[in-house]
């Protein structure tokens, strides 16, 4: 800003034009920014307008009344925007697309494994501004009224309703998983049944091209439907785990938890899986469970606006966050039959804010989802209602050596060394997978997403076409015809514990092979991915090393290409299948070429799956428990844990996990668990935003509408100003008088507090104590000039010029005059201000503020989560000279920090308390800046740290 005032008039005009363009773009987005101090200032336009029209306080309106005067005020509103409550400073944009990059520093730019710099990514990739969620409680007067009316009976009822909602979320998530699994099986059986019959007939007649066309017809149709559903709701693409992780971190991703998103996700994933793409349905189950958790307790939906329920509970982002955590955990539990693993997943990978009471509710929700899915799947698939044989969508079966093999062991101490090596290789493979997928994602963001939506559909069809042709040709050309054995036909005893012999026989594919033989490549490619995983886990000796190696390479490349296209898709099952092939390949090599006869191939397939999946997603605790619960074998705990830890350490050396990579590419301001130690060189004053937009305790409607329409901030500090001649200034202006009276009444002194306490001591039996306190207070009671705290607040001998609501700033003000001292009293949210305007909460200047209508907590939260937009407000219904008293609705005690607070302390407070805005207040109660989520992102802190080094 100092550069702006010191530059030439030509550069100032250029700055004004660029700021106007940026402000216009932000206005069209309307609300796409993050937090209180994160938007473009359009002060240049306002400065020009003030030069033309003059200050609003100096203009004398014509004596017009009623609707004529309101209409004239409305017509001139867009020509002259009065921002009487904020300094007109031409500030820079604090959106992630600009200031998060910080100053250019070619020498200090950090290079990635690919050789690119962060600056190159920011320069090329499109960015988007994100809003934060209000996880902190706003303890204002309406909220305190609710607390006063709360008794034990109401508290127990509220807790009981919350437990009922948690149970309902688990049941609904289980039913969603049942629906997806049923139709995926139906479509897959239909497709493979037709294709298998065609292949068997055409193998003799020489018309295999017709079989390929039939397979292409099925796959392209299914993928086309899945792509169309994503066009309806683009946020339904992918697994949804990165978006849910951002939501639980406190970032509002538009449309991520809507009912329309759930419908497109559920129907889209069953078509994408049935379409033969190398995707899984387990990842989207997590997203689906989160959407159920967000919407079910609300009893309303944006997609179904006409359906309204008078349900007064859970009308805050804080409550919704807890239910989303429970829904995400229920999705994991339904996918893998792992309720404990789902709880740990929600804690490790999803939720950034956790409490003890939430743990029980999340676990109960996960158990409800597992119970529901197990009950209905066992009854539908086996006709045995109540047997509970299928706990999740993906079942690994029981790992057990054959009774005829006396040398076989599930694993031995010597095998741990091989597991460590497999963990290293899995981490390297996962890092390579993430690196390639990141390049593909960046290419799509630059060349596919900016183009018409039809291009995304064509990309999905292209991937489906290539995948289908590769699968068909590889099975026909690269597959080996192997002799069927009893093991291949029926499977071992452990395998039959989870599936019948008929399922085993149906999973053995004889494509392109003579009688009594089967095609090992087709057995892996022409089966559902879950069946292929079971083959690798439990069918010993049925796949050659060459087949496993070729399958791994083809599947690795196609799965990497597929993840990121515009279809609902998961990554868990493709990673497990790819890793299982790698593990079986290692087991075959150790058995055939090294002669280790004690090796159980299923164990190495499981460890390979864990190594590759851990190298891709970089999860440790939750993934260990998920795999243990899925295998029902606690003895695998140590090898799985060791493998996942080694895979994570190896992969983290090169890049981040796949979900974190996609979060970073989207430009989401995600807050990690903690900051780097080096960041403690910075303090709160180094990262805060000093250019504030604020309101007064009593503010005119005209000023509020101006602020709300010309900014997209989501919270405003409530402040008063300090000046020495307040008594003289109060004369003849009721608005200024009310603000000054509020400031004086809100100042707490030691003497005043002691006086208040002494008045409450009348109930004490000791009159001596009361008399002593009264004498002490009388002796120390200061006059108005002797109030120490008041003197500190007004410590300046020559106060800076003040900007009161009916004044306009001067063009000749210095930097100190623009950034004058402001006494901080609290925070008021944009949604609260708009609600007050919509409901007509105001009073006239001739009345007392006590005559202003009061809103209850239920009325304030009635429009949650879609509060009215200030741009949709009918200004003709408002009197611009009316005054709004915001003090009953502001949060008078938000979390604040000192300017000297180190960044690590600021970060921990902001993240652990789930804050959206963090005011910076100096030693005398003056607000000097505000910190939002954007100011704590890694990129922003790195930029500030480079500036810190340059000033040393």
From TrEMBL:
Residues 890-951 form the CBS domain. Residues 760-769 have a biased composition (Polar residues). It is found in: Late endosome membrane; Membrane. Belongs to the chloride channel (TC 2.A.49) family. ClC-6/CLCN6 subfamily. It is a multi-pass membrane protein. The chain crosses the membrane at residues 163-184, 220-241, 262-279, 323-346, 416-434, 454-478, 546-565, 602-628. GO terms for molecular function: antiporter activity; ATP binding; voltage-gated chloride channel activity. The keyword Ion transport applies. Signal peptide: none annotated. It comes from the Eukaryota. InterPro entries: CBS_dom, CBS_dom_sf, Cl-channel/antiporter, Cl-channel_core, Cl_channel-6, ClC. Keywords: Antiport, ATP-binding, CBS domain, Chloride, Endosome, Glycoprotein, Ion transport, Membrane, Nucleotide-binding, Phosphoprotein, Repeat, Transmembrane, Transmembrane helix, Transport. Pfam families: CBS, Voltage_CLC. It catalyses: 2 chloride(in) + H(+)(out) = 2 chloride(out) + H(+)(in). Gene3D superfamilies: CBS-domain, Clc chloride channel. Residues 16-73, 89-123, 751-770 are annotated as: Disordered. Residues 16-31 have a biased composition (Basic residues). One of its GO terms (cellular component) is late endosome membrane. SMART domains: CBS (SM00116). The keyword Transmembrane applies. Voltage-gated channel mediating the exchange of chloride ions against protons. Functions as antiporter and contributes to the acidification of the late endosome lumen. The CLC channel family contains both chloride channels and proton-coupled anion transporters that exchange chloride or another anion for protons. The presence of conserved gating glutamate residues is typical for family members that function as antiporters. This is Chloride channel protein. Residues 44-61 have a biased composition (Basic and acidic residues).
């Amino acid at each position: 800003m100092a550069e702006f005032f010191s530059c030439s008039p030509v550069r100032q005009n250029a700055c004004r034009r660029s700021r106007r363009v940026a402000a216009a773009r932000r206005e069209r987005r309307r609300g796409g920014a993050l937090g209180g101090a994160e938007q473009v200032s359009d002060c240049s336009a306002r400065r020009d307008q003030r030069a033309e029209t003059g200050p609003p306080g100096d203009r004398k309106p014509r004596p017009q009344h009623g609707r004529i005067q309101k209409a004239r005020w409305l017509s001139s509103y867009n020509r002259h925007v009065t921002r009487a409550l904020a300094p007109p400073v031409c500030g820079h944009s604090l959106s992630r697309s600009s200031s998060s990059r910080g100053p250019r520093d070619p020498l200090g730019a950090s290079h990635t494994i690919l050789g690119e710099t962060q600056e190159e990514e920011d320069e090329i990739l499109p960015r988007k501004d994100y809003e934060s969620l209000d996880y902190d409680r706003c303890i204002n007067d309406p909220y305190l009224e609710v607390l006063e009316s709360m008794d034990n009976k109401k508290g127990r009822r509220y807790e009981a309703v919350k437990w009922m909602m948690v149970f309902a979320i688990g049941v609904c998530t289980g039913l969603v998983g049942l629906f997806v699994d049923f139709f995926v099986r139906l479509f897959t059986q239909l497709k493979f049944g037709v294709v298998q019959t065609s292949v068997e007939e055409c193998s003799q007649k020489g018309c295999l091209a017709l079989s390929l066309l039939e397979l292409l017809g099925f796959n392209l149709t299914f993928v086309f439907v899945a792509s169309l559903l994503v066009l309806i709701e683009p946020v339904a693409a992918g697994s949804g785990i990165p978006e849910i992780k951002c939501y639980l971190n406190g970032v509002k991703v538009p449309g991520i938890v809507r009912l329309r998103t759930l419908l497109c996700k559920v129907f889209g994933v069953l078509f994408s899986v049935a379409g033969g793409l190398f995707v899984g349905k387990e990842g989207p189950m997590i997203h689906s469970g989160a959407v159920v958790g967000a919407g079910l307790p609300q009893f309303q939906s944006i997609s179904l606006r006409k359906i309204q329920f008078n349900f007064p509970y859970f009308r805050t982002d804080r409550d919704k966050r807890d239910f989303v955590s429970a829904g995400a955990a229920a999705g994991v539990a339904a996918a893998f039959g792992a309720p404990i693993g789902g709880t740990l997943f929600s804690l490790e990978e999803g939720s950034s804010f956790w409490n003890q009471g939430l743990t029980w509710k999340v676990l109960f929700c996960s158990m409800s989802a597992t119970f529901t899915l197990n009950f209905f799947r066992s009854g539908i698939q086996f006709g045995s209602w109540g047997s509970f044989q299928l706990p999740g969508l993906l079942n690994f079966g029981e790992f057990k050596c054959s009774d005829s093999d006396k040398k076989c062991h599930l694993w031995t101490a010597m095998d741990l060394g091989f597991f460590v090596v497999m963990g290293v290789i899995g981490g390297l493979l996962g890092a390579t997978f993430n690196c390639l997928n990141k390049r593909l994602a960046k290419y799509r963001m630059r060349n596919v997403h900016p183009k018409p939506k039809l291009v995304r559909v064509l990309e999905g069809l292209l991937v489906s076409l290539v995948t289908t042709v590769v699968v068909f040709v590889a099975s026909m050309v690269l597959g080996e015809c192997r002799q069927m054995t009893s093991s291949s036909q029926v499977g071992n005893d452990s395998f039959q514990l989870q599936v019948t012999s008929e399922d085993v026989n149906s999973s053995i594919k004889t494509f392109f092979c003579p009688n009594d033989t089967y095609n090992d490549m087709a057995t892996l490619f022409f089966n559902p991915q879950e069946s292929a995983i079971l083959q690798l886990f439990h069918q010993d000796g049925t796949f050659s090393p060459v087949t496993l190696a070729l399958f791994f390479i083809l599947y690795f490349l196609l799965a990497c290409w597929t993840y990121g296209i515009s279809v609902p898709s998961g990554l868990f099952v493709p990673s497990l299948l790819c890793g299982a092939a790698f593990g079986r390949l290692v087991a075959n090599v150790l058995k055939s070429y090294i002669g280790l006869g004690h090796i159980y191939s299923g164990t190495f397939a499981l460890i390979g799956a864990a190594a590759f999946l851990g190298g891709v997603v970089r999860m440790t605790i939750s993934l260990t428990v998920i795999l243990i619960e899925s295998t029902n074998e606690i003895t695998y705990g140590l090898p799985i844990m060791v493998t996942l830890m080694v895979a994570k350490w190896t992969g983290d050396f090169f890049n981040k996990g796949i979900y974190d990579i996609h979060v970073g590419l989207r430009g989401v301001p995600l807050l990690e668990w903690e900051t780097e130690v080096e960041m403690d060189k910075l303090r709160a004053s180094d990262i805060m935003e000093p250019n504030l937009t604020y309101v007064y305790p009593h503010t005119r409607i005209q000023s509020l509408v101006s602020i709300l329409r010309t900014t997209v901030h989501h919270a405003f500090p409530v402040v008063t100003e300090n000046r020495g001649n307040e008594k003289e200034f109060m004369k003849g202006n009721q608005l200024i008088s009310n603000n000054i009276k509020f400031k004086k009444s809100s100042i707490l002194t030691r003497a005043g507090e002691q006086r208040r306490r002494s008045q409450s001591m009348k109930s004490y039996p000791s009159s001596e104590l009361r008399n002593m306190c009264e004498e002490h207070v009388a002796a120390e009671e200061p006059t108005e000039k002797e109030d120490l705290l008041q003197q500190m607040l007004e410590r300046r001998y020559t106060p800076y010029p003040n900007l009161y609501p009916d004044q306009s700033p001067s063009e000749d003000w210095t930097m100190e005059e623009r950034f004058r001292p402001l006494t901080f009293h609290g925070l008021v949210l944009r949604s609260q201000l708009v609600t007050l305007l919509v409901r007509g909460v105001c009073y006239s200047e001739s009345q007392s503020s006590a005559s202003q209508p009061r809103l209850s907590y239920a009325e304030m939260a009635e429009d949650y989560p879609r509060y009215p937009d200030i741009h949709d407000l009918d200004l003709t219904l408002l009197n611009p000279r009316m005054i709004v008293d915001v003090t009953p609705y502001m949060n008078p005690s938000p979390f604040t920090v000192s300017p000297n607070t180190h960044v690590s302390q600021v970060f921990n407070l902001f993240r652990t308390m789930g804050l959206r805005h963090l005011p910076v207040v100096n030693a005398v109660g003056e607000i000097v800046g505000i910190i939002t989520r954007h100011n704590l992102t890694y990129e922003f802190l790195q930029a500030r740290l480079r500036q810190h080094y340059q000033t040393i």
